[in-house]
Design a protein that fits this description.
The chain has seven helices and no strands. It has about 210 residues and is mainly alpha-helical. The two termini are about 20 Å apart. About 30% of the residues are buried.
Length: about 210
């Protein structure tokens, strides 16, 4: 799969690609005149700086990443079902019978590894979407900052760490197994099997599946 092409297309479809810079700066110049405060006097986490444009960009990024996650789960439905069903014999063998079965665990572990690899690729795309959204916000706030500080040369450049409304992925994007255990058909058996798998790999000095 051409990841770079997929990410570029996704950003373009969301309106978060490089071509959005001109629109973002134009909106920033307009909003600079409408804002009833000087942006530079506010902390970037101030709610007063979450303008309609900032809300729009954040909503676009949120919807796009949610769609990415949903598409992953839908496209990998067969794999997810296999992971759920395969968890049962793993738990029976290791937690009920207390007998190791490396072949059984490895077979199931390959499915888990395939899921984690697919989720990592999906996270890369989601991070690109967040980056595209933050780039739009950076262009927007650059224009606001420059317009409002036009008479003060010392303030013409926006500090890089000052980016109200910055978009960040939620913690679940770094815990793709939680998407499996949060599924309606998931049970505690799956959680236990994943713990067994990672525990066996840790004892063997191998990376997690």
């Amino acid at each position: 799969m051409d990841t770079r092409h997929s990410v570029t297309r996704c950003l373009r479809e969301c309106g978060l690609d490089l071509r959005s810079a001109v629109r973002s700066r134009r909106r920033g110049r307009l909003d600079a005149a409408r804002l009833r405060m000087t942006a530079s006097t506010y902390d970037p986490d101030s709610s007063e700086l979450i303008t309609p444009y900032v809300q729009e960009v954040r909503l676009i990024a949120e919807r796009a990443t949610i769609e990415l996650r949903g598409r992953l789960i839908e496209d990998r439905h067969t794999l997810v079902a296999a992971i759920h069903s395969g968890a049962v014999p793993v738990v029976v063998q290791y937690e009920v019978r207390h007998s190791d079965s490396p072949a059984l665990l490895d077979r199931w572990g390959r499915s888990v590894a395939e899921w984690r690899t697919a989720a990592a690729l999906c996270r890369t795309r989601a991070e690109s979407i967040a980056g595209g959204a933050n780039l739009r916000l950076a262009h927007y706030w650059d224009a606001v900052w420059q317009r409002q500080s036009a008479g003060d040369e010392a303030l013409r450049t926006r500090p890089q760490d000052w980016l109200p409304g910055r978009v960040a992925l939620d913690a679940d994007w770094h815990e793709p197994d939680s998407w499996l255990t949060a599924a309606p058909e998931a049970t505690s058996v799956l959680t236990t099997a994943l713990r067994v798998l990672d525990g066996q790999h840790a004892r063997a000095g191998r990376p997690a599946a």
